[in-house]
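Dear colleagues,

I hope this message finds you well. In preparation for our joint manuscript, I am sending the Thymidylate kinase (Saccharopolyspora rhizosphaerae) sequence together with its predicted structure, so that both groups work from identical material. I would be grateful if you could confirm receipt.
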Amino acid sequence: MGRLIVIEGLDGAGKRTLARGITAELTARGCTVSSAAFPRYSEDVHAELVAEALRGEHGDLGSSVHGMAVLYALDRRAAADALRAHLAAHDVVLLDRYVASNAAYGAARLHQHADGEFVSWVRDLEITRFDLPRPDLQVLLRVPAEVAADRAEHRERTEADRDRDRFESDASLQQRCAEVYAELAEAGFWSPWVVVDGATDVDFGVLVDKHVLG
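The corresponding structure tokens are as follows:
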């Protein structure tokens, strides 16, 4: 059975770059790696509805914290069997965002902390009720919110398919989300965590040796 590794962090933190670096390091060592990113906008109807709601479609759906969180959760539930199959077939399954994203962004939208009602509700829904595969490690790629925002804005200008959504463009929300992420990591939400400084160069060899391969 492979190891499930999740990369979490703000939009613009550099999660795709980190995923590519970890994948390259693992592949060089002869490990097989499968990768996925949530939401799966091009693969799942729930994720499609999320994208549409973030563009202002479907009435007031985008304003409903719990409604949007259910759609994010259903996207992952629909992927659960495939994740288990990939874990059975690969040494590492690497995910860009997972359950903690739902917990962090929803709590931030409600001005709650990691020990609040919303995070508990997400745990009950996605972990207990949906029984999603548990990560072996969650990696928080931590950068200052303003740095992440600058990177996301640059990406939006230079990549045709990378428009920021209403959450990603909300600076105060991103700051609160960063705080909740830090609290989740400190509390060890659902699995072990490691915090990586996304403002400096990452030593992928050390990260893989000490944490990813356990």
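For the figure legend, we might mention the following. The helical segments are 15-28, 45-54, 65-89, 99-109, 117-129, 145-158, 171-187, 204-212. The two ends are 14 Å apart (CA to CA).

With kind regards,
E.M.
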